[in-house]
Write a structure and sequence with these properties.
By secondary structure, the protein is an alpha+beta fold. It is 40% helix and 21% strand. It folds into two domains: 143 residues, Jelly Rolls (Sandwich), CATH 2.60.120.280; 93 residues, Orthogonal Bundle (Arc Repressor Mutant, subunit A), CATH 1.10.10.60. It is built from nine helices and ten strands. 33% of the residues are buried.
Length: 255
Amino acid sequence: MTAVARLSSKLPLVARTGFALGHSRQPHYECEWHSHDCAMLLWPQLGGLRSAWLDEGAGSALEARTARLTRSTAVLLPSSTAHRTVAETARQHHGELYLAPELVRSLKQPTAIRLDGATLAMLDALLSPALAPRSAEALVRAIVLQLEATKPVALPLQSDSLAQALLRRIASALAQERALPSIDALACELGVSTRQLQRACRQELGTSPIALRRRMLAAHARALLTRGMPFSQVSAQLGFANSGHLGRLLRDAAD
């Protein structure tokens, strides 16, 4: 299934200086598939992100490349690259540097990179609210020069299977105390049909997405109970209407 990526236009923002800066401290950050009409550097300053993107010619979320980003790592994406980003930690702060295409003419494919100390220091300075606009322009020019000298693909890349991607998203929601999405919603997020997701889970793990979801939910509930959290509090935190529903889940999962 083709990944549906909305266009988030940034060209008006970069028209005057050739660049624009964005950042987010939003807890549990998640941004679905989208693309820009300019290049973008994405890097975490605090916390961890998982970024997925489609190389040129790829049209399906099944073909997505992914990298886990922490401090000192980044992805550099050319114009029109479909990508999505999800926070792996509850707290996060990341920067987004949008660059006019003419500033990065040599950038042909999305690139995962490890930032050297000089680039990281300049990016930290770029996010400082006290930085003067003219100083920002000089920093961006220096950053671009540093990026041009950086060797690409310095990060281990991976393509999750559908089943593993499903497990990772469920685990992330539980770790961040978010409501678990439905299987239909997870399939949509992964860019496939519910039937495709069901088939992938049965082929790789021998069971259905619903069974995996219930198994992980039960395991997480047991972990919370083991830590001493009251049964009623665990039930409420995991979104059950009452404690009886949680009790049935735990009994069923134990069978």
